[in-house]
């Protein structure tokens, strides 16, 4: 019989119960027992949903209060020394507070670095390695949760990030030249111990996620893979399932299929062409899990097409060793469609969230065995046909405009050196000019007012007056602090993508379509279902108002086209590059309106620029060409003396620095504080020609950095960058922080800039 299984389920709760409990715990409004009770209830409900849907093999340990990689670091006892574990915590037992301190930092310890999970908008906490790193089984979470499910009558399949991926994701933090893969000899025995303990608990399968099989592997990684799975193959009483996802196997296919494990999982959405080839390489005992339901997008699976793929696989291995599942964990999908009462009825019929994807998985597993739900298949095919021919999707005017773009449309009138002269003459900024990335704290009052206005219980006039007051206060605060380039604070905006998408054609928004970005930060990605255009101005009103309140330059704040698409659930019926071009033209219209309204600087954020980079290096050039062009298209029509900024979050720049330069922004601001300016190494080998704002204030931690700390970071920056091209700014927007942290941190930042400015003048 074919087995239906799942790789992971959203842990946040349909109504963000995890976020509410976690933040209440951080504030001291909920005790540890209350937090654990919320986690237990979410796990129970998730297991129950999957059981009722008919999933045969349900995952456990896919739950986390923050991040699964961070959780693994804690399980392995890999806690950086600065956090004082175990002496500062509850004896020798791993405590959730250890993880929270690593994620958020403490008064005496900077938080661990955070970066993107492969090419998703999910973030993980980077494991830290030093010459003193050791591994030991330091926690019991994976066993506790297996027992919880067992008491619920479910024998789950525990899930962990695999050893090769864990080592690949980590970084050396002590400045040594050690080979992090040499740590495999210490790490692998702990994995073996975990597998043995799970077998003793009664677990039948252990899923080890190794998405690095979708990357270009080097010899060190290949050696770790062989060594790890040779050792794990010796564990008795439990079957190992190695899961690859997010891409094709390509040159890693032979290594992957030769692993001495009981089962292998492939991503048959992104790697559908490889499914039959993988099946032909398996020995007669090995199970193949085919991830045929897209775990990263919201469109219904074409069940007839998926069934054809599965039948091709079963032609090679039969049905007795076949598993059917999602391409990856459903962590990246919203929980359920049932509460989406505001979506267009036709669009709703094209969608499937996590719970609906479970039904698709079960349908396909049963259909392979000859038990076809004809009614479900017919309804599915009708939805496929309806979507393909719907008038909701196609706008000929948008298509013609995009098709008419020429090479000349990507270039500004003058090169950067000439633009810089004109901008300096116009802006008259001092050395080390200060600014922020855009947003200020979204207080409870701000969120309440926005919600009330959206519901209709606050009039347009009252809401406008409220926003005007927020902007007035923000402008006055920035002028009092001494900022050189101001922002209006974005108090009217719910999210940097949602706010714009709500005003663009071709976008739709859910009511409860939340997915986790990191920790308690959740986003509601829009759904791009059709051709995109901008019916009317989106930001001009409040940016123009803010500029009227100050003589200093005010930045207009926009989200760039790659990020607008990357952080959305994107239509899959045309190339992504075409959708991005449509969005770029819509943003271009807004840029020109902001310039006409008197804004001397416009920031077009491309936080997701590197995130969209393909996982394989051979695929990079095509992506970087169209991604770079799309950014240039947004700003190509502005005057030379209008300063164009961009911002990028948590990105390694070394390998794409030439593409970053090719974007031709007048100034780029980047996250650098958590890495202690290490990200600036990219600018050592490459002479970046334009201006840079290396972040000196980690906004993802509640701690307030001292002035001297920021001065030290800026001095590091001046060792790499020309001082006359350095801006001073936080790492990212300040929306998620509170004013009690933000005000002193920003004052310290401005004072740090003044001190360096004074030293430069001497």
Index terms:
single chain; 762 residues; alpha/beta; TIM Barrel; 5-stranded parallel sheet; 22 strands
Mind explaining what this structure looks like?
The protein has 762 residues and is α/β, with parallel strands linked by helices. The model has no long low-confidence stretch (mean pLDDT 94). The radius of gyration is 26 Å and the shape is globular. The longest helix has 23 residues, at 739-761. The protein has 27 helices and 22 strands. The strands form six sheets. An eight-stranded parallel β-sheet has the order 1-12-11-10-9-8-6-2. It has a five-stranded parallel β-sheet with strand order 17-19-20-21-22. A three-stranded mixed β-sheet has the order 13-16-18. It has two domains: 3-389, TIM Barrel (Alpha-Beta Barrel), CATH 3.20.20.210; 397-761, TIM Barrel (Alpha-Beta Barrel). Its cofactor is Zn(2+). This is 5-methyltetrahydropteroyltriglutamate--homocysteine methyltransferase.
């Amino acid at each position: 019989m074919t087995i239906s299984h799942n790789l992971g389920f959203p842990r946040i709760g349909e109504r963000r119960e995890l976020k509410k409990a976690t933040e209440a715990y951080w504030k001291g409004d909920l005790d540890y027992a209350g937090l654990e009770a919320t986690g237990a209830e979410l796990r129970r409900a998730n297991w129950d949903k999957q059981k009722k849907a008919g999933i045969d093999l349900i995952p456990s340990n896919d739950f986390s209060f923050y991040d699964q990689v961070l959780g693994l670091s804690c399980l392995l006892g890999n806690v950086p020394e600065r956090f004082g574990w175990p002496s500062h915590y509850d004896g020798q037992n791993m405590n959730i507070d250890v993880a929270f301190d690593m994620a958020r930092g403490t008064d005496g310890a900077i938080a661990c670095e955070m970066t993107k999970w492969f090419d998703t908008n999910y973030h993980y906490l980077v494991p830290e390695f030093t010459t003193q790193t050791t591994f030991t089984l330091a926690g019991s979470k994976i066993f506790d949760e297996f027992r919880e499910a067992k008491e619920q009558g479910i024998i789950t399949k525990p899930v962990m990030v695999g050893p090769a991926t864990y080592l690949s994701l980590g970084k050396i933090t002590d400045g040594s030249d050690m080979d992090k893969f040499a740590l495999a000899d210490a790490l692998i025995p702990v994995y073996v111990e975990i597998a043995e303990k799970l077998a003793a608990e009664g677990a039948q399968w252990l899923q080890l996620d190794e998405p690095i099989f979708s990357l270009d592997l080097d010899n060190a990684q290949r050696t770790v893979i062989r060594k790890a799975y040779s050792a794990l193959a010796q564990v008795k009483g439990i079957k190992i399932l190695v899961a690859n996802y997010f891409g094709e196997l390509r040159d890693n296919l032979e290594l992957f299929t030769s692993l001495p494990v009981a089962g292998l999982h492939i991503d048959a959405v992104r790697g559908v062409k490889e499914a039959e080839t993988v099946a032909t390489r398996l020995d007669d005992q090995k199970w193949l899990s085919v991830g045929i339901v897209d775990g990263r997008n919201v469109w219904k699976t074409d069940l007839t097409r998926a069934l054809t793929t599965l039948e091709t696989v079963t032609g090679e291995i039969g049905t007795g060793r076949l598993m059917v599942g999602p391409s990856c964990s459903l962590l990246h999908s919203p929980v359920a469609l049932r509460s989406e009462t505001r979506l267009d009825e036709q669009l709703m019929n094209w969608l499937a969230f996590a719970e609906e994807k479970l039904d698709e998985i079960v349908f396909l597993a049963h259909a392979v065995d000859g038990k076809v739900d004809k009614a479900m298949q017919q309804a599915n095919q009708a939805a496929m046909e309806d979507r393909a021919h719907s008038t909701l999707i196609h706008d000929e005017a948008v298509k013609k405009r995009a098709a008419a773009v020429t090479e000349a449309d990507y270039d500004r009138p003058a090169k950067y050196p000439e633009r810089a002269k004109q901008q300096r003459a116009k802006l008259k900024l001092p050395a080390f000019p200060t600014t922020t990335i855009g947003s200020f704290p979204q207080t409870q009052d701000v969120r309440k007012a926005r919600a009330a206005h959206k519901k209709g219980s606050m009039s347009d006039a009252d809401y406008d007056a409220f926003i005007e007051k927020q902007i007035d206060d923000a402008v006055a605060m920035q002028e009092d602090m001494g900022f050189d380039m101001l922002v209006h604070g974005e108090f009217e905006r719910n999210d940097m993508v949602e706010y714009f998408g709500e005003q663009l054609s071709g976008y739709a928004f859910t009511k409860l379509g939340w997915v986790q970005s990191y920790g308690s930060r959740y986003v509601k990605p829009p759904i791009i279902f059709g051709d995109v255009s901008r019916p009317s101005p989106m930001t001009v009103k409040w940016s123009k108002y803010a500029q009227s309140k100050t003589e200093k330059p005010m930045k207009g704040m926009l989200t760039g086209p790659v990020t607008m698409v990357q952080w959305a659930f994107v239509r899959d019926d045309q190339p992504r590059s075409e959708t991005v071009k449509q969005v770029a033209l819509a943003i271009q219209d807004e840029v020109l309106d902001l310039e006409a309204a008197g804004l001397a600087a416009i920031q077009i954020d491309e936080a997701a620029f590197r995130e969209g980079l393909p996982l394989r290096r051979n695929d990079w050039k095509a992506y970087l060409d169209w991604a770079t062009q799309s950014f240039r298209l947004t700003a190509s029509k502005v005057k030379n003396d209008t300063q164009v900024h961009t911002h990028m979050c948590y990105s390694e720049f070394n390998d794409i620095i030439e593409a970053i330069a090719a974007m031709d922004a007048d100034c780029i601001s980047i996250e650098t504080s958590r890495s202690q300016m290490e990200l600036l190494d990219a600018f050592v080998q490459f002479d970046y020609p334009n201006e840079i704002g290396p972040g000196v204030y980690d906004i993802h931690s509640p701690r307030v950095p001292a002035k001297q700390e920021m001065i030290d970071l800026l001095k590091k920056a001046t060792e790499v960058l020309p001082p006359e091209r350095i801006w001073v700014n936080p790492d990212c927007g300040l929306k998620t922080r509170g004013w009690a942290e933000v005000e002193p941190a920003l004052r310290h930042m401005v004072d740090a800039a003044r001190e360096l400015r004074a030293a430069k003048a001497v």
